[in-house]
Each structure stands twice: as C-alpha cells, then as structure tokens.
Amino acid sequence: MRKALAITHVAFEGLGSLAPELTRFGFAIETIDACTAELRAIDPLAPDLVVALGGPIGVYERDAYPFLDAEIDLIRARLAARRPTLGLCLGAQLMAAALGSRVYPGAHGKRIGWAPIEAGGDLDRCPWFARLFAPGLNVLHWHGDTFDMPEQALHLAATRAYPSQAFAIGAHALALQFHIEATALDLERWYVGHACELAYAGLDIRRLREEGRNFAPALETASKPIWQNWLSQAIGAWNVALTESGEELKRS
Fold first, then answer.
1. In whole angstroms, what is the distance from residue 35 CA to residue 1 CA?
2. Is residue 193 within 8 Å of residue 10, measured between CB atoms?
3. CA–CA distance from 252 to each of 245, 247, 248 (Å)?
4. Which of 232, 222, 216, 212 is nearest to 26 (CA)?
5. Residue 234 to residue 171: CA distance in whole angstroms
6. Euclidean distance between CA atoms 167 and 180, whole angstroms
7. What is the pTM of this model?
8. What span, in angstroms and rounded, lies between the C-alpha atoms of 19 and 13?
9. Exposed e or buried b for every residue in 93-115, given b needs 16+ CB within 10 A?
10. What CA–CA distance (Å, rounded) separates 188 from 209?
C-alpha cells in the first residue's frame, strides 16, 4: 500500500477533502506534528507522497521555530528527487523556500475569507487546474505572507493583491497558497483555533461561517477532480521514473 505523510502545524488544519481521495488512490495516511516530530529522523524519500499543511507561523521565523529548517530540508530533498509533494498555504511557502525563493510578510495585509482566484501565466500547461476558475467559484484565502515565484515553477494562479498563489513543478509538485481542502465542517475547528487572529483582524465569525456554508460545497465539488488529476499524474510520473531507474540499473 502507498504511504502518504501529512505534516501538520496546528492540529485543526488537516487534509479535509483530500483525505478521501488519498484513500481512494490506495494511500495509507500517516499524520505527524511538525512542531514535535523528529523530522531529521525521517527518510524524506520514504513516503510515496508528502503533504505539508497550513499553519499560522512564518517561514522566516526560523529562530523562533527551529523545526522549520528541518522541514524545509525534508521538502528540498523530495523536490530534488522529484518525489510527489503537495503544499497548502504554509506548506506552499515552505516549498517555495525549499526551491530558493523568498518568503515574506505581504505588503497588503492579511487575506482571510472567500474570493475567486485569477489564472496564472502557465495555466494552459496544466488544463486540469482550470476548474478552479469557474464563474462564481470562490476559494478560501487565509494568509498574510507571500513568496516570490520559484524560477522553475509553472505559475497557475494569482490574485490582484498577491500574484503568487499556486505553482507546479513538473508532474510531481503542487503548491497552493489558498485552501481548497477545507470543508464547511472542518472550518468550525478553524474558527476556534484561530479565534485570537480573527478577533485581532476584526472579522465576524458568524459572517465567515455563513460564507463557508455558502461557498465550501461548490469548492469541495470542484476540488475533487483537481486532487484526482494531480494524484494520477504525480503517481504516474513517479512510476515511470522508477521503471526508468530500474532499466538503468539493469544496463549497468
């Protein structure tokens, strides 16, 4: 059975709508807490898939949160080996850092709430991603940091305030600054876990809950084929790489 390693940073931000698709694709899911796990003891190439999830800290806060260095090293090793890797929000920022890009506080403040995204310049090279740009579809934004687009990345999505919203590297790596995994039920945990952040930002949780109930079901429907297409291509690309490396070993 394939193994998917989910790396969490706060317990209430989980795999959401991605979890059933991983099960459907034959993955056994192991979840670890980045804050307390011995990340350097993990073989970065052992899992068939690594998913780095969201969290409220910044990639640049490594002095305060030293585990970030080990997590970036783990992600960097996977990306160098072209192993399937997915990053969501903080996870996407960690992937950008692992690829040598700058991650920093955004100049336009926090973005928390539901809004559409715009197509990135390379969307035509990943047509399976286009479902997220359907008229009337909103995704969940919950970030204050941003990053420079990695040089080798395909730019898939943007917003006017923060152009770096999603990128892909080949068939094996996908990074999303926004959330398509969150469901309306999952978000009830977020409203509690992020209560201080929401209060400081002056946001009405009742309004966020109403928007979540209105927009999350359509996003869950749209995200399902996104997960399926990306998992299919990432697994397929890795299977081809394994076959080719096996052939090379036979020849040597």
1. 27
2. yes
3. 11, 9, 6
4. 232
5. 5
6. 14
7. 0.95
8. 12
9. bbbbbbbebebeeeeeebbbbbe
10. 8
156, containing H or E segment: strand 154-158
| Residue in the structure block whose two tokens are 């197509």 | 119
Condensed to tens digits (0 to 9), the pLDDT of residues 28-74 reads 999 999 999 999 999 999 999 999 999 999 999 999 999 999 999 99
Which domains, and CATH codes, for the chain? Answer: 2-251 (3.40.50.880)
Predicted confidence (pLDDT) per residue in 186-198, tens digit: 999 999 999 999 9
User: How far apart are alpha carbons 84 and 4 in whole angstroms?
Assistant: 10
Ordered strands of the 27-33 beta sheet: 27-33, 2-8, 49-52, 85-88, 173-176, 166-169, 154-158, 118-119
